[in-house]
Write a structure and sequence with these properties.
The protein is of the alpha/beta class. It has one domain: Alpha-Beta Barrel (TIM Barrel), CATH 3.20.20.370. It has helices at 102-112, 152-167, 192-207, 209-213, 225-228, 240-249, 293-301, 312-332, 347-368, 378-386, 390-397, 409-412, and strands spanning 41-42, 52-53, 55-57, 62-64, 86-94, 118-121, 171-174, 254-255, 268-269, 272-274, 279-281, 288-290, 338-342, 373-375. Strands 5, 6, 7, 13 and 14 form a five-stranded parallel beta sheet that branches. It is globular.
């Protein structure tokens, strides 16, 4: 794998760096739905699974296969005085596959715990490097990319794992394409019109991968991306202000690009739910750190992803406890949702992947003990938000970080859902 640029840091606490959408990894799993030119119906590849109707879209890169499997029941409004659930969203920027098994590792972890996540797919990860001149990035040379391109084997594996993720019930969002974070070509300088171009290209690389690759031996992605795509995270958390008008026109429902959010209930911005990465406790420090692996790294090893290994045990523990502290603070007080951002990377010996897994398992264990915890995707979370009564949301949104509900939840929300 080529060395990819990791540019664009945003300060938080002692120099925490902003989100970077880098490559991912994993071993593909087969699931035979939607082969181009095949039968109109096909099994899911699992014994006893009902056949799903397949309706190819466009060149057959994607297909309508019915309602997404493994979704929670229809969300309902909170009853008067009911305690809100503790929502936790784990999300992944880039969602590409480069052979280290991380994509599959976290798909399996989610499956074992009946949890869902959001994968913000970089469109270029489905475009062969031989076709890179199809990409015309705003304010950058044709074919340019600050995250490079995957080789063909990794593109094929990415297709298989993105497909498996959706069939497992996860959300497929977008991390756009070239991940430009600095200079005049930075996404922070793009106009709404340029964002529209970037979005159109990101979608085309997903919906036309068969044309761009010439491959006919892989099944279609089993979803209509025009309907599936309802939210995004921008590279380096830059450019949200000019992205939102374009996103609103497309009917998107949320954006996860705000930097430096806090653990409070979200509000809408430009008509979309604004779901920021959040400042969470950073054990051993007075300042807080943004809830993403790269930001924790930036506060531990500053400018390197390959620090001396003797640091790793303590840093792994610190990162794990940071996520767990953020969860506990919310669960025990205002029940604000916790948003965690990640990359499929092996920075500092893979300690951040270990930390995410340990924190995930801790939260899942709390759920298994009876805590009202919901490990969901961003789509599933906004589905819940959208059915709540405005007066209930207003009460939740008025609560500060770590604020206890006055008189307890039964008193605080009594009559608000009448």
């Amino acid at each position: 794998m080529r060395d990819v640029s990791r540019r664009g840091m945003i300060g938080l606490g002692a120099g925490a760096a902003a989100a970077m959408g880098l490559a991912a990894c994993g071993t593909a799993q087969k699931d035979a739905v939607g082969h181009a030119g095949g039968s109109p119906t096909a099994g899911s590849g699992r014994p006893g699974t009902p056949k799903r109707t397949v309706r190819p879209i466009g060149d057959g890169s994607t297909a309508y296969t019915g309602k997404q499997p493994h979704q929670p029941g229809q969300p309902v409004p909170l009853e008067p005085g009911e305690t809100p659930p503790q929502f936790v969203v784990f999300s992944w920027d880039g969602a590409g596959e480069v052979g280290t098994g991380l994509f599959e590792r976290f798909l399996q972890l989610a499956k074992e715990n009946e949890a869902h996540m959001t994968f913000f797919l970089s469109g270029l990860y489905l475009l062969p490097e031989s076709k890179k001149r199809l990409y015309d990035p705003p304010n950058n040379p044709r074919g340019a990319s600050d995250i490079g391109y995957l080789n063909d084997d990794h593109v094929r594996s990415t297709l298989k794992l993105v497909r498996q993720a959706w069939l497992d019930g996860h959300e497929i969002g977008t991390h756009f394409n070239g991940h430009f974070c600095s200079g005049s070509g930075s996404v922070g300088n793009w106009t709404p019109q340029q964002w529209r171009s970037e979005i159109a290209q990101a979608k085309s690389f997903v919906t036309e991968w068969r044309t761009n690759t010439g491959w006919t031996d892989l099944p279609a992605l089993p979803f209509d991306y025009e309907k599936e795509l309802i939210g995004a995270r921008t590279p380096c958390l830059l450019g949200q202000d000019n992205l939102l008008p374009a996103a609103r026109e497309l009917g998107w429902r949320y954006d996860a690009s705000s930097p430096g959010g806090v653990q409070r209930w979200p509000q809408k911005k430009e008509g979309l739910w604004d779901l920021p990465l959040q400042a969470i406790p950073f054990p051993g420090h007075r300042f807080e750190v943004l809830s993403m692996d790269y930001n924790i790294l930036a506060n531990q090893s500053i400018a390197t992803t390959r620090a001396p290994s003797y640091n790793y045990p303590a840093w792994r523990t610190q990162a794990t406890n940071s996520y767990i502290s953020g969860f506990k603070r919310a669960y025990e007080t205002n029940r604000a949702p916790l948003f965690v951002g990640n990359h499929f990377e092996d920075w500092n010996g893979g300690i951040y992947m270990d930390a995410v897994e340990k924190a995930f398992k801790y939260i899942a264990h709390e759920k298994s003990k009876g805590a009202d915890v919901r490990l969901v995707s961003f789509r599933q979370f906004v589905d819940w938000l959208d059915v709540q009564r405005p007066e209930v949301l207003a009460k939740l949104q008025s609560m500060d970080v770590a604020e206890q509900p006055a008189g307890g939840w039964k008193s605080y929300l009594r009559g608000q859902a009448a």
